[in-house]
Amino acid sequence: MTATKQKVIVNRNALLTLLAKRNISIIDLANSMNTAPSTLYRSVDPDNPKGVGGETIANMLSALGLKEKDFSSLFIFSNRCI
């Protein structure tokens, strides 16, 4: 029997749109989050997005000047089989 587990992934289109509006690159965002750009690039990979953890979520919201209530504008839940 296969179970499903939810993971949180970045809403790629929403993030890229927000970055474009603010004239910020993924590298700029990663630097302001004090994380490796590759971490963010993996999270927005259109073919195989990686899930993000609580620390990354909190850091991204903070770096973008967003609040917890804005969570659903940048992140979505995705089911995966385990």
Task: Produce a short descriptive summary.
Helix content is 48%, strand content 17%. By secondary structure, it is of the alpha+beta class.
Please specify the SSE layout and strand pairing.
Elements: E1 4-10, H1 12-21, H2 26-33, H3 37-43, H4 54-63, H5 71-74, E2 75-81
Antiparallel strand pairs: 1-2
Helix pairs in contact: 2-3, 2-4
Q: Work out the count of structural domains.
A: 1
Structural class: alpha+beta
In the CATH hierarchy, the third-tier topology is known as 434 Repressor (Amino-terminal Domain)
Helix content: 40-55%
CATH class: Mainly Alpha
Largest sheet, in brief, is: 2 strands, antiparallel
What general form does the structure show?
Answer: globular
- Mean pLDDT comes to 91
Number of helices: 5
Please, could you describe this protein's structure?
It is built from five helices and two strands, in the order βαααααβ. With about 80 residues, it is of the alpha+beta class. The protein has a single domain, classed as Orthogonal Bundle (434 Repressor (Amino-terminal Domain)). It has a two-stranded antiparallel ribbon with strand order 1-2. Helix 2 crosses helix 3 (about 35-45) and helix 2 packs across helix 4 (about 55-65).
